[in-house]
Amino acid sequence: MRRRFEADQDSNAVAKSLAAPSSSKQSRLRLRRQAVPDDADDSEIPRRYFSGTPLGHLNNFIRFSAVDGPGNRFVLFLQGCNFDCIGCHNPYTISTCNDCGVCVGPCPEAALHLEGGRVRANRHLCTDCDVCIEVCPENSTPLAAYVSVEEIVAEIRQVAPFISGVTVSGGEATMQPEFVAALFTEIKTDPELRRLTTFVDSNGSAPRRVWDLLLPVMDAAMIDLKAFDPSTHFALTGVDNEAVLESIVYLAERRRLYEVRLLVMPGHNDETATIDMTVDWLRSVDPAMRVKIIGFRHHGVRPAGLSVREPDSTETIAIGDRFRAAGFADVVVV
Amino acid sequence: MQIDELRTRVRQIVEDPTLSFHLRRHYLAYAAEEALPYPELSPDTAEALNKRIICDLLEGPAPYRARYILPNYAKALANGSEFLELDPPETFDDALNFLLILYVNVPSITGYTVYLGDLDRLLTPFIDDVSDDHLYAALRRFWIALDRMLPDAFVHTNIGPEDGRVARAILQIDRELLQVVPNITLKVDPDATPDELIEEAVHTVFETGKPHFVNDPLMIRDLGPEYGVVSCYNSLRVGGGAHTLVRLNLKEVALVHSGDLDSFFAETLPRYSEMNAELIEARIKYLVEEAKFFEHDFLAAEGIIELDRFSAMYGVYGLAEAVNVLMANDGKAGRYGHDDEANQLSYRIIREIADFVANRPMPYCEGNGGRCLLHSQAGIDIDVDVSVGTRIPIGDEPEMFEHIACVAPHHDLFGAGVSDIFHVEETVRSNPAAMVDIIRGAFSEGMRDFTFNLDSNGFIRITGYLVRKSDLEDFDTAGARHGSATFAAGAMKNAPVTGRTIKRVVSREHRPSGTPQK
Fold this sequence. Notes:
- The structure holds two protein chains of two kinds.
- By secondary structure, chain A is an alpha/beta fold.
- Helices cover about 35% and strands about 20% of the residues of chain A.
- In chain A, the strands form two sheets. Chain A has a nine-stranded mixed β-sheet with strand order 5-1-2-6-7-8-9-10-11. Chain A has a two-stranded antiparallel sheet with strand order 3-4.
- In chain A, strand 9, helix 10 and strand 10 (about 290-295) form a beta-alpha-beta unit.
- In chain B, the strands form four sheets. In chain B, strands 1, 2, 8, 9 and 10 form a five-stranded mixed β-sheet that branches. In chain B, strands 3-4-5-12-11 form a five-stranded mixed β-sheet.
- The radius of gyration of chain B is 22 Å and the shape is globular.
């Protein structure tokens, strides 16, 4: 007697076609590389194809989240982002570690060391004190690791009875589309896991060909719209927003847009005129879309972000009300 | 007890400014009971009782009524009651009236009935011609009457596992009235209970900390299809109940043990397990053979309760401390809830006790094949530094998933009840579906009974019962209307239960003795 998030027909149909009971591994390979003959058995397939399953560069995962999509969800935070938002509350996920080794000495638990030119972290010794993040000249972290789809699926399987689905966030999930697609494919072809919905939480910067890679196995995306106005967007994120607006339209047309998120940063994107334009444009895309209004919080942000004040709840509630007054039925203010 | 001591006790009660009339009379009855000698026990058992290694929850030396009674309300509604001069009701309003009258005539350890019946199942046959407005208004009136006439948080009703108008109305009314009474349990059957009903219950949890969620198939496996969850989270057969509840303090058993782990299991644990059983047996025999409760109470005479549906509850608590002490004695650093070896030790301890209880014959316990039922006891307000039942100590809990993984194996063995409380962040308010997921996941992992606590509502879940934060504020000078608030106030004094940061609620159960805490 369980409800399910209603996945699009396409996703379900593709998931069904991916499920080949006798040799699921072969059918996945067939999807990616046509060079493998249909009647080849496992032993004949050269090893490089197996090692062709991409690894993911992962900052962290959490088993239970109530804030990353519908229901309780398993959430992956990938390392690396192509935006540089002043309001980012996990800025150490933006850059990738360059193995400079500056963090190794300062670690109070001696959990870091340099080996073969790479910084290695012993997760068991780590106490999450964040000293390495604080001293990192690149604003990155030495704790991001490369993980395989198998490792992640094993973690998901443990908590499967408790979750509605899996969300990939970050960092920026769409910068590692092959890994995300491979992970989602594994989920959608596994008899125990295929009921889980697969979501991506994204800044919307991905071009169509990246969404096309994900759409067959992704139930929906949640897109952050930092600002509708291009110059405000640039000031807040360091990049233009044209791709973001296109992503919203592209996903909404395919009914794969779960929600648009608006991070309210007072003095930047909260002026009445700005909100009205945002309301009008989103309504023109889909008046039934779900909108989440998030009040900016200082927790974890860098100095540039601290100069922006936190809105109080009356302000975010008022913005939510503007959306409702414009006819949006599904508005959440957090 | 000497007459002077009795007089002093009585005078304290008579002159206590914080007691309502009913509570005063309740405590005077305890004082009178304590004038009698305790039922006869072997010297070792009497000594263990004195040292509180085994504990009778201060039930009183002369049990004159069963501790927990679960009247078969369906039978009473069908047949009426001769003693109460009531015909079987035919309308919805008559049924509510009938139940209220019957409730105030049901004894229990608290003085107020601990079981109101599975209200949705009881009332649904009467509501075919009843409009939604009438249903809502009448149930709301009924709900207010329950809280004002039975002012005790251990008064408990069950709903579910099927969805229905009555269950929905109850969950809505409870959210609106924000009363301590009644305590509520939603029975959940994974196949029969829809997400919508669970989510409706989650909304009520956000406001009041109720209901508990209970694993219906697991309960039916152990108690049969007619069972009720009563008082805090005690599960027993309908038409029956528990004569008494006596608990084994596993922490104390581990502390008095000298020797290795093998001798603990070979000698110490069995010895104290038997003492706990001996105490239970003595109390049952007094109740049935001396006080002859079942021979004079009208509920038994009319078949609304039946002696051979009764059992007794064999309680355990302080498991966490016992495990940690035994591990330390063995030179190991692992802690219960955090270390696999410690957890395995905890399962072994409980399995040993469960096996003992399953093999130890007990008189007048035909409700469970002549045996006690195992119960993970919730603590009472005088407990200090000892954990509830089989729970992980407050403040020491791991993340939700690890927490459930640790305690779920215990839930399987406790037919008479076990429960865990999970403290959740405010963010779930905007995502109740996440709670539904967690509830379903917990049941699939074998949890029997659990509930949730949030900081932001006006309630504190002490163990399985609630108290309003506002009721505790003036308690010392003005008392409170609910009898259970007395115990909550005591519990609050013995351990801080502040709630700003994510913190588990202190889990202490009520202290039924009439002796005022001065």
